[in-house]
Amino acid sequence: MNGQIAELKKALLEATELRNEAKAENEKTMEMSEAGGDAVELALGLLKDFYKGALVQTGKYTPPNADRSGKTLSDLAPEVSTSTDARAGAESKGIIGILEVILSDFQRTNKQAETDEKDSKEAFETFEKDTNDDVGKKEDRIKEAEGELSDAEAEILAQQQALSDAEALLESATSSLEELEAMCVKGEETYAERVEKRKAEIEALKNALDILNNWQG
Prior knowledge:
86% of the residues lie in helices and 0% in strands. It has four helices and no strands.
């Protein structure tokens, strides 16, 4: 189980490194897209003000090198099919349109980076929580198993001591039994042995009596 915990922690470490890399990349993308969008918005504002001043009647644009009436050599030249205002209008629409597309791309990139960052963060947090929960459960189980092992070892020692005490008691009982057997069984005389012993005692008494009588006579 310790091996499983090590694998889980290794996977979490690798996921953390990938998460940090993704976060840094997303933040860089958002920073660059925001800066680009700000620059394009500034350019759009300047261009719109410029063309507005050039085209709106309330503030007629006076080109460089114009005479007192505001007319240039182009104005004094014969009219052509396309007017200056028409050319300016077409030009403004083209440039502003391009910039608006670029701005839209920056904004879309920024929004996508924000979404990617949010999804990456949520996925990592879920993985991190699940991994830590799994590691915690396994560590708790290891502690529980270690406690059970300690209890089992203590019980084994107690049983070994009980066995040793029982063996000592058995040895003492066996020794006492052998002594008792020697006293009660092996030391018991047979009937014939008791008769012979009694005869020997009587014979000894007769001899003693004869000796006593001879001494008195």
